[in-house]
Write a structure and sequence with these properties.
It is a single chain. This protein has 15 helices and no strands. The protein is an all-alpha fold and 408 residues long. Helix 1 (12-44) runs antiparallel to helix 3 (73-102). The longest helix is centred in the last third of the chain and has 37 residues, at 283-319.
């Protein structure tokens, strides 16, 4: 695991103030959880009749869907709270782990504080509703969370604004994130300031793409890849959950509470790997396997569904009734299809997305196959140098052969 980058390492003068500020953020998060967790549990056991937009309570339609699925309201509330605590432990745990391992790096401290506050986001509105006099503390945590998010997107991973002129966008965004909610509470007409979220959705990705192409080192590019992978995996799972929600396989409230929360757990893990620079070089392997097995699962699922539908239609046409044999035959067909389909999908993905690696592997395989038949050392040396140049593409390559000495 690498040490903190010199550009973001804290000097001894700022080390303890930064750690103290992080500790205050942690205390704020713990206070919010202690106060807000029982409120969320109470809301999840209560059916919401009206004004349910910001409530954690299930609506009448949600309660009916749970009942139709054989899930009682008390069981749903208990399972939902267990999953909420699991999410909290993962988000806060990875944040604390980053602090323990990289507390001398202000970029790591910023990321850690952001993750800790994101873990407590669901308790903000219940606290503000139940304790109006303490609502400003929950609102402070929410504002800090957004401010840290803007700073993370604008500065990660090098700790510098890239391009430099972007500071004139990011600094006002951070200020608005810190004071915007308090300002809107006092002057509701000031709610128009949140339209600045739209430029953020454009300039945020632009700054990261520009940084990746123009200013990032190899390690910084790998760090960016891990974060992008985390966001992409989360987005993919959310889209799959939205599909399940539309086709009605599971109740909407179950998908929103559990599936979307599960999708979000990809992000803190990838951010932690990126910030700690731990196994950065494994990103190609992870992406490759994710693409292969994601495409394989989707293809096998569609084939299984199509086979079952076709065979059931055939059984109904022949015998007038449905049969469990259709599912058995389809399962055996999927089992037989798994290995050849996985190899085919992996070859297609390697050719499409990992062309250099795929070509290098083919060249090495061809060289290994011809190695057994090559006896001339001069020809063998030429072939070896050609393979190294073609696969690794070094600036210069040379081969030294040891002279044969007398036998002992």
């Amino acid at each position: 695991m690498n040490q903190a980058a010199s550009g973001t390492r804290l000097s001894s003068r700022w080390l303890w103030p930064a750690r103290l500020a992080w500790s205050l953020v942690l205390l704020l998060a713990i206070w919010k959880l202690v106060l807000g967790t029982p409120l969320i549990y109470a809301e999840k056991q209560t059916i919401c009749i009206e004004a349910c937009a910001e409530s954690n309570s299930p609506t009448v339609e949600d309660a009916a869907a749970l009942h139709a699925s054989g899930i009682s309201l008390a069981e749903y509330a208990s399972l939902s709270m267990l999953f909420f605590l699991l999410e909290t432990v993962i988000w806060m745990g990875t944040g604390v782990l980053i602090f323990i391992l990289r507390s001398d790096d202000w970029m790591a401290l910023l990321t850690s504080a952001m993750m800790i506050l994101f873990a407590t986001g669901p308790v903000d509105y219940p606290i503000m509703r139940a304790y109006p006099s303490l609502g400003w503390l929950a609102l402070l945590g929410f504002s800090l969370q957004n401010a840290f998010l803007f700073l993370f997107v604008g500065l990660f991973p090098s700790g510098r604004f890239v391009p430099r002129w972007m500071r004139w966008f990011w600094i006002p965004m951070v200020v608005i994130a810190l004071v915007g909610d308090f300002l809107v509470d006092v002057f509701p007409a000031a709610a128009w300031i949140w339209v600045l979220w739209f430029p953020f959705l454009i300039l945020g990705p632009y700054s990261q793409i520009y940084r990746y192409r123009k200013a990032s080192s190899l390690v910084e590019r790998l760090q960016t890849w891990w974060v992008v992978f985390g966001f992409s995996a989360m987005a993919g799972l959310i889209l799959m959950g939205a599909f399940l929600e539309q086709v009605g396989i599971l109740p909407d409230i179950v998908i929103q509470d559990f599936y979307f929360g599960l999708a979000g757990l990809m992000l803190p893990i990838c951010i932690a790997i990126s910030v700690l620079r731990f196994h950065l070089w494994d990103i190609d392997v992870i992406i490759r396997k994710t693409l292969v097995y994601g495409a394989l699962s989707l293809t096998l699922g569609l084939v299984f569904f199509g086979a079952v539908t076709l065979l059931q239609s055939l059984f109904v046409a022949l015998s007038g009734q449905r049969s469990a044999v259709a599912a058995v035959i389809s399962t055996l067909f999927i089992a037989a299809l798994f290995s050849p389909l996985r190899r085919r999908i992996q070859n297609d993905i390697d050719r499409r997305f990992f062309r250099k690696k795929y070509d290098a592997e083919k060249i090495v395989e061809a060289f290994s196959a011809g190695l057994r038949q090559e006896l001339d050392p001069e020809q063998l040396s030429e072939r070896l140098l050609a393979v190294v140049e073609e696969t690794l593409q070094p600036e210069r390559v040379s081969l030294w052969l040891r002279e044969g000495g007398p036998k002992r």
